[in-house]
C-alpha cells in the first residue's frame, strides 16, 4: 500500500511515509480535528485479508490501550476510513536506537539512562501481564530530549496470570499459542534478540524480554550485536567474561548482562525491575555521571564556602544549632519553557522529586519529572500545553492547567484526569483534605474543586475596584488560604497579600501593596517577591497575621509582574528552589505588518497595556501602570508628543475611541467614564456600577456602545445607547445582550454594525464566536484551537483575533443573507507579541495592513540558562536567622 502525501482518511491528512516492516506500514499524518501530528500504522497489503493478522492488529491496539506509561509509545485510537483500518499512534520526534547505534557504541552515562527507561517500560508491561516478545533497537525510539519510548507491541502476548488486559486478548488462541507460529516453521520475532526458548518454539514469558533487554544493553555498550547471524544457536559462548569492549562498563553492569543472558530461564534475572538496582548503583559509581545532587558529598565544603562568600544577603553568623545555607546550581536536564505562566520548576513536598515545564519541539510546553538524585527527566503523558503545575500533599499527583481545563496526572505515569473547566487558570493549591483551591479565570475570585472532580464552589468575590484573586496557597491545617489580590491591570509588583478563611469564606488583607506570589513556609514565615527581591516576614498561620518586619533575602529572583507570579518553590523539609532572572513585564510599542516586520515607536519601555489606534490612524492611546494607579496617555506618533488624559488617582483601563475620534470611553473605579480626546476638560462618569465594566466597541455611527461587566456567572455583555447631541456623552439604561462563561469576552461590533464578535469559554478554553446584532439566537465559531480579543477590519471581509500564545490570526468571511460564513483561520504573522494574558496587546490600523503591538522589552533567558535553577539547602534556618519573630 502506498499513500501519497495529501491523502485524507477521515480527519487525518497523510504527510509522509515513516517506515515499513513485516508487522505494518507507518505514515506521518496530521490530525486536522485536534491540530496535531500523529503516526498511522497500517497492515501490509498482503495481510489485510488475513483474519489472523487482522485480529492480531486489533489486539495490538488493545495491548497499547492497556499500557499507559511515559516510556511506551501511546495509542490514540483504532480507526477506519476509506476501507483502510489503522492504528493512530503517538508521533515520536527523534530517531530509533538502531539509528543511534549505527554511529557506534554509546557513552556509558547515556547507555545507563536509556537502559533504565527501557527497564521501566518493560516493568510496566510485565506488571500488566504483557510480554513484548520483539524488543530490539529498531523498536526503541529516542526523542530529541533523551526520552525513551518502547514501540511496536504487534507480537505482544499476555502472561497466564494477566489481569490487566482485555478479556478477548487474554483468551486469544492466536496470541497464546505456545509455538508462536505464523505459517509452518516460521517463528515470530527477530533472531538476534530472541531468547533460546523462543527460538525453540517454546512458550515465552517475561524472562524472554529480559534476554532481549540484555542483548540491547550489550549492543549499546559495544556498538555491535551480540548475535549477528540470522539464526540463534543453542550453545552460548562465554562472550562476556573476556569481552574487551565491556571493560569500560562497571562490574555491576557486567553482572547484570550475565544475569540477563543466561540460557536457562530459571538461571536468568527473574524480574526486569531488579535491573534498576544494578543500573542505578552503576550510575552512582560512574565518576562522569551527570546527576545533579551527588555534588553534596564530594564538594560540600567548597560549595558552602562559595555560597556564603558570594551570596551577600546571607553572610551572617549562624547560631550553634543551625546549619549554614548551601546554594547549588541544578541542571534540570532539559530547557524549561521560557515564557511559561507560573513557577516552571517545582519540588515535591518531601523534596525528593522535581516537576518542571519544558519547551517541546512543536513550541508547546510539556511536563517533565525526575527524582532529585537522578539526571534523566521523564515526560508526563498528556501534559502538552501545561502551565502553572502544583503538587498534591503526598507528592503522587501533579495538577496543572492546559487547554482551558484544570487537570491532574500521576508522577508514576498515566493519562491526565480533567477536574473542571479553567478558561484562564491563575494558580492552585491542593489541600490536605483532598480539595483544591484554584483561580480558574484571570479576572475572577477563587474557587474550591474536589481533587477527584465534582462541583465547583465559589470561595471569593472581587471587592469593588479589584480585578483578580490568584496564586492561592492552602496553609497547613487546611483552614486558611493565602492569595494575591490586585486592583491594577497587569502590574502585581504592588499587589496586596490576602488571607481567606475556608470556614466562612471571609477574607482580609494581610499586607497591603506588598508584592506578589505569597507563600507560607514551615519556618514560620511568609515569603513574597516585589521588584525582583524575595522578602520574608514572621507569620502566624492560625491568626493569619504578620509578627515582625519584612527582611530582604535574595535579589534577582525571576518574576512576572504582568501575571503576578515568581519562579520559586520549596519543600517542607527546608529546601528552596528558584530561578535567577529579571522582572518580566516591561514592554515596548511597535508597528507590525503581516511579514512579521516590526518598527519600534520612539518611546521607552514601560508597563503598557491596551493600545488603541484612533479612527484616523494618527494617534495611539494606551494605559501605563504606575504603582497602584494606571493612567491613559494619548501619543501622536507622527509628532512624537504625549498627552495624559487621566489624573493618576485611580486605575483607568480599557480605552476605546468614539468613531469620530472626539471622545474616549474607559473603565475606572465605579463604572465607565468618558473624556474628550483632546484633553480639554475632566473625565465624566458615563455609567455607575460596583462591578468592573469594560468598554470595547462602538457601532459605526457612534450611537451604541458595547461593554462587558464582571459578575458571579462570568461576563455579562451589555450595550447602551448614547446621546452626544449636547456635547456631553450621556448613557441610557444598559441592555443585556448575552451572559458568557468567560469573565472577559471582549465584544466587538463589525464595521457595518450587523454582527458582534466575542470570546467565550463554554468548551473550557477561550474561542471566538460571532452573533447577529440584534441577537437572533444563532452563533458561528470562528477560531479553531483557542482565540480571544476579536478585531474587525474596516473592509468588511476580515476578522482578526489573538491566540493564547499571543499570535495574531485572521479569518476571511462573507455574509449570505442572515448567515455569517467564515473561512478557516490562518496565521496573520509568525511574530509573537508580548504575552499579556487576557489583557489586550494589539490593535488594527484603519488601513487594515498593520497593527500596533506590544513586544517584550529586553532579551529572553539565554539558552544556556534555560535548564538551570538554584537549589538552596537549609533555607529555613537562614529565614529564622535573618527574619526572627518579634518578641
What report would you give on this structure?
The chain has 887 residues and is mainly beta. It is built from 11 helices and 65 strands. The strands form 16 sheets. It has a 6-stranded antiparallel beta sheet. Strands 29, 30, 31, 32 and 33 form a 5-stranded antiparallel beta sheet that branches. Strands 49, 50, 51, 52 and 53 form a 5-stranded antiparallel beta sheet that branches. Strand 30 and strand 31 form a beta hairpin. Helix 6 packs across helix 7 and helix 7 packs antiparallel against helix 8. The longest helix has 20 residues. The chain starts with 7 loop residues before the first strand and ends in a 5-residue tail after the last helix.
Key attributes of the depicted protein:
37% strand; five-stranded antiparallel sheet; globular; six-stranded antiparallel sheet; 887 residues; 11 helices; 12% helix; mainly beta
- The helix content, as a percent range, equals 10-25%
Roughly what is the average pLDDT, rounded to an integer? 84
How many individual β-strands? 65
- Give the overall silhouette: globular
Strand arrangement in the largest pleated sheet:
1-2-3-4-6-5
What percentage of amino acids are in beta strands? 35-45%
Structural class: mainly beta
Catalogue the unreliable spans. 161-187, 230-239, 286-320
Number of helices: 11
Largest sheet: 6 strands, antiparallel
Provide the gyration radius in Å.
31 Å
What is the straight-line distance between the termini? 81 Å
Amino acid at each position: 500500500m502506498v499513500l501519497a502525501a495529501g491523502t485524507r482518511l477521515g480527519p487525518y491528512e497523510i504527510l509522509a511515509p515513516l517506515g515499513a516492516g513485516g508487522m505494518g506500514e507507518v505514515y506521518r499524518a496530521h490530525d486536522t480535528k485536534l491540530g496535531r501530528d500523529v503516526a498511522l500504522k497500517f497492515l501490509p497489503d498482503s495481510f489485510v485479508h488475513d483474519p489472523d493478522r487482522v485480529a492480531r492488529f486489533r489486539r495490538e491496539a488493545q495491548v497499547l490501550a492497556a499500557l499507559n506509561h511515559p516510556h511506551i509509545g501511546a495509542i490514540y485510537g483504532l480507526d477506519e476510513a476509506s476501507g483502510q483500518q489503522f492504528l493512530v499512534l503517538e508521533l515520536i520526534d527523534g530517531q530509533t536506537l538502531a539509528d543511534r547505534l549505527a554511529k557506534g557504541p554509546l557513552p556509558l552515562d547515556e547507555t545507563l539512562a536509556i537502559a533504565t527507561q527501557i527497564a521501566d517500560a518493560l516493568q510496566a508491561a510485565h506488571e500488566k501481564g504483557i510480554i513484548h516478545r520483539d524488543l530490539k533497537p529498531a523498536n526503541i525510539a529516542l526523542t530529541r530530549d533523551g526520552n525513551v519510548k518502547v514501540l511496536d507491541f504487534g507480537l505482544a502476548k499476555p502472561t497466564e496470570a494477566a489481569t490487566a488486559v482485555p478479556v478477548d486478548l487474554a483468551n486469544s488462541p492466536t496470541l497464546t499459542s505456545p509455538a508462536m507460529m505464523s505459517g509452518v516453521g516460521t517463528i515470530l520475532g527477530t533472531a538476534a534478540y530472541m531468547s533460546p526458548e523462543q527460538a525453540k518454539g517454546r512458550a515465552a514469558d517475561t524472562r524472554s524480554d529480559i534476554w532481549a533487554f540484555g542483548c540491547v544493553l550489550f549492543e549499546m555498550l559495544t556498538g555491535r550485536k551480540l548475535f549477528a547471524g540470522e539464526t540463534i544457536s543453542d550453545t552460548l559462548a562465554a562472550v562476556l567474561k573476556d569481552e574487551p569492549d565491556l571493560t569500560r562498563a562497571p562490574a555491576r553492569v557486567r553482572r547484570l548482562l550475565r544475569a540477563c543472558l543466561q540460557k536457562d530461564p530459571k538461571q536468568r534475572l527473574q524480574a526486569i525491575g531488579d535491573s534498576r538496582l544494578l543500573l542505578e548503583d552503576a550510575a552512582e559509581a560512574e565518576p562522569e555521571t551527570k546527576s545533579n545532587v551527588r555534588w553534596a558529598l564530594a564538594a560540600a565544603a567548597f560549595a558552602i564556602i562559595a555560597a556564603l562568600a558570594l551570596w551577600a544577603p546571607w553572610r551572617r553568623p549562624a547560631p550553634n544549632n543551625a546549619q549554614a545555607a548551601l546554594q547549588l546550581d541544578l541542571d534540570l536536564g532539559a530547557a524549561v519553557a521560557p515564557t511559561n505562566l507560573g513557577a516552571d520548576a517545582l519540588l515535591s513536598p518531601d523534596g525528593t522529586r522535581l516537576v518542571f515545564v519544558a519547551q517541546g519541539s512543536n513550541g508547546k510546553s510539556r511536563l517533565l519529572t525526575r527524582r532529585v538524585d537522578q539526571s534523566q527527566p521523564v515526560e508526563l503523558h498528556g501534559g502538552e500545553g501545561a502551565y502553572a503545575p502544583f503538587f498534591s500533599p503526598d507528592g503522587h499527583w501533579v495538577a496543572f492547567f492546559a487547554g482551558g481545563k484544570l487537570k491532574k496526572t500521576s508522577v508514576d505515569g498515566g493519562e491526565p484526569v480533567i477536574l473542571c473547566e479553567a478558561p484562564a487558570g491563575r494558580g492552585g493549591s491542593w489541600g490536605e483534605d483532598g480539595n483544591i483551591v484554584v483561580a480558574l479565570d484571570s479576572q475572577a475570585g477563587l474557587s474550591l474543586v474536589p481533587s477527584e472532580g465534582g462541583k465547583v464552589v465559589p470561595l471569593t468575590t472581587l471587592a469593588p475596584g479589584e480585578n483578580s484573586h490568584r496564586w492561592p496557597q492552602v496553609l497547613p491545617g487546611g483552614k486558611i488560604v493565602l492569595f494575591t489580590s490586585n486592583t491594577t491591570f497587569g502590574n502585581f509588583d504592588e499587589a496586596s497579600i490576602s488571607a481567606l478563611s475556608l470556614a466562612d469564606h471571609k477574607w482580609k488583607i494581610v499586607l497591603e501593596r506588598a508584592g506578589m506570589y505569597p507563600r507560607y513556609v514551615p519556618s514560620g514565615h511568609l515569603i513574597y517577591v516585589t521588584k525582583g527581591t524575595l522578602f520574608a516576614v514572621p507569620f502566624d498561620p492560625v491568626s493569619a497575621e504578620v509578627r515582625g518586619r519584612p527582611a530582604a533575602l535574595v535579589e534577582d529572583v525571576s518574576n512576572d509582574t504582568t501575571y503576578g507570579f515568581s519562579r520559586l518553590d520549596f519543600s517542607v523539609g527546608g529546601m528552596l528552589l528558584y530561578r535567577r532572572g529579571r522582572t518580566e513585564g516591561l514592554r515596548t510599542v511597535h508597528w507590525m505588518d503581516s511579514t512579521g516586520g516590526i518598527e519600534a515607536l520612539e518611546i521607552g519601555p514601560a508597563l503598557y497595556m491596551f493600545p488603541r489606534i484612533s479612527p484616523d490612524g494618527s494617534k495611539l492611546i494606551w494605559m501605563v501602570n504606575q504603582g497602584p494607579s494606571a493612567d491613559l496617555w494619548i501619543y501622536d506618533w507622527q509628532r512624537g508628543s504625549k498627552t495624559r488624559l487621566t489624573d493618576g488617582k485611580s486605575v483607568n483601563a480599557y480605552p476605546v475611541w468614539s468613531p469620530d475620534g472626539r471622545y474616549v470611553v474607559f473603565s475606572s473605579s465605579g463604572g465607565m467614564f468618558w473624556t474628550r480626546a483632546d484633553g480639554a476638560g475632566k473625565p465624566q462618569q458615563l455609567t455607575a456600577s460596583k462591578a468592573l465594566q469594560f468598554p470595547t466597541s462602538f457601532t459605526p455611527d457612534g450611537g451604541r456602545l458595547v461593554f462587558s461587566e464582571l459578575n458571579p456567572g462570568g461576563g455579562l455583555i451589555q450595550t447602551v445607547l448614547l446621546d452626544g447631541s449636547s456635547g456631553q456623552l450621556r448613557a441610557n439604561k444598559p441592555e443585556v445582550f448575552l451572559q458568557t462563561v468567560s469573565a472577559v469576552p471582549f465584544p466587538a461590533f463589525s464595521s457595518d454594525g450587523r454582527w458582534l464578535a466575542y470570546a467565550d469559554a463554554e468548551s473550557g478554553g477561550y474561542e471566538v464566536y460571532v452573533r447577529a446584532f440584534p441577537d437572533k439566537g444563532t452563533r458561528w465559531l470562528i477560531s479553531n484551537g483557542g482565540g480571544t480579543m476579536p478585531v474587525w477590519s474596516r473592509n468588511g471581509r476580515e476578522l482578526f483575533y489573538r491566540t493564547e500564545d499571543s499570535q495574531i490570526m485572521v479569518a476571511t468571511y462573507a455574509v449570505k443573507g442572515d448567515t455569517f460564513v467564515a473561512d478557516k483561520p490562518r496565521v496573520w504573522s509568525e511574530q509573537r507579541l508580548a504575552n499579556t494574558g487576557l489583557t489586550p496587546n494589539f490593535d488594527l490600523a484603519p488601513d487594515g495592513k498593520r497593527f500596533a503591538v506590544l513586544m517584550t522589552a529586553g532579551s529572553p533567558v539565554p539558552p544556556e540558562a534555560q535548564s538551570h535553577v538554584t537549589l538552596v539547602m537549609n533555607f529555613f534556618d537562614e529565614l529564622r536567622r535573618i527574619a526572627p519573630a518579634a518578641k
